Task: inverse folding
């Protein structure tokens, strides 16, 4: 009996060792070590473009809720357009993902923004159709609303996310004749729009979190590089950065320039942190005159 117990214990111990070996060192470290804090990303949210004709009060409420949702993320610092933009420049009309002026993306990049978020409310689509079965069939009007979310990466000046979410309400035609369009708009603004904006806000937070933190090289001083981002985004002495040269500029199919990621020059370690700037020292031999951008190594 004792021999059987010893054999059982030996088999059990072997299984535990095998299971631990299959898990690999990475999963063990992940399980017992706290996650490294990631730096925050500066995000510029442009004024909403409304093509449906909602009231100013409705737009202000939707905008406030959307921005507050983004600000609830510990990884984002959310900004709205400032006096750095010319009147109307940051809210210039755009009809697609490539229509935000390059001047806006350049200025956003100069301000240290990593992404620009734009939201467009499409014009209502109104269609007529029949519902139900005879003899209860009814003619209805369908009012479809849509919210388009675009997220632009300022480092490459390309589209990082584009998604349209839609929903609709239906009104019986005989009721529609007595119902003012203003009442229908109020119904849409209270029943549909908050849900669409909530979903798009969650999409924005998720997509922005997936973008690697990057910064620009502002200057080279005494063998070190000065970069955008400091205490405001949570950078700390000892953080490691990948250093890249300026990438090639190519022209996309729509005629817009796209900036590719340049050649990796090496690694640098942050040695001092200021309010919105940091100094980093290279960890290997590299020509800092080519340094253009840095990416955080988690």
Result:
């Amino acid at each position: 009996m004792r021999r059987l117990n010893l054999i059982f214990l030996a088999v059990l111990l072997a299984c535990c060792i095998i299971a631990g070996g299959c898990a690999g060192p990475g999963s063990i470290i992940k399980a017992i070590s706290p996650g490294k804090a990631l730096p925050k990303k500066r995000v510029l949210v442009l004024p909403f473009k409304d093509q449906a004709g909602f009231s100013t009060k409705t737009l202000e409420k939707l905008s406030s809720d959307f921005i507050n949702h983004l600000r609830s993320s510990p990884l984002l610092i959310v900004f709205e357009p400032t006096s750095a933009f010319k009147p109307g420049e940051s809210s210039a009309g755009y009809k697609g993902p490539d229509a935000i002026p390059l001047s806006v993306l350049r200025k956003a990049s100069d301000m240290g923004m990593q992404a620009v978020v734009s939201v467009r409310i499409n014009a209502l689509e109104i269609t007529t159709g029949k519902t139900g079965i005879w003899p209860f069939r009814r003619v209805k009007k369908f009012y479809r609303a849509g919210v388009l979310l675009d997220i632009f990466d300022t480092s490459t000046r390309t589209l990082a996310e584009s998604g349209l979410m839609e929903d609709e309400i239906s009104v019986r035609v005989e009721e529609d004749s007595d119902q003012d369009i203003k009442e229908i708009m109020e119904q849409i603004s209270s029943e549909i729009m908050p849900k669409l904006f909530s979903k798009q806000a969650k999409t924005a937070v998720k997509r922005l979190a997936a973008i690697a933190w990057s910064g620009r090289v502002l200057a080279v001083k005494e063998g070190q590089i000065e970069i955008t981002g400091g205490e405001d985004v949570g950078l700390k002495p000892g953080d490691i950065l990948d250093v890249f040269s300026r990438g090639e500029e190519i022209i996309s199919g729509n005629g817009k320039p796209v900036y590719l990621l340049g050649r990796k020059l090496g690694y640098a370690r942050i040695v001092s942190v200021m309010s919105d700037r940091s100094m980093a020292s290279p960890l290997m031999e590299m020509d800092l005159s080519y340094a253009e951008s840095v990416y955080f190594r988690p």
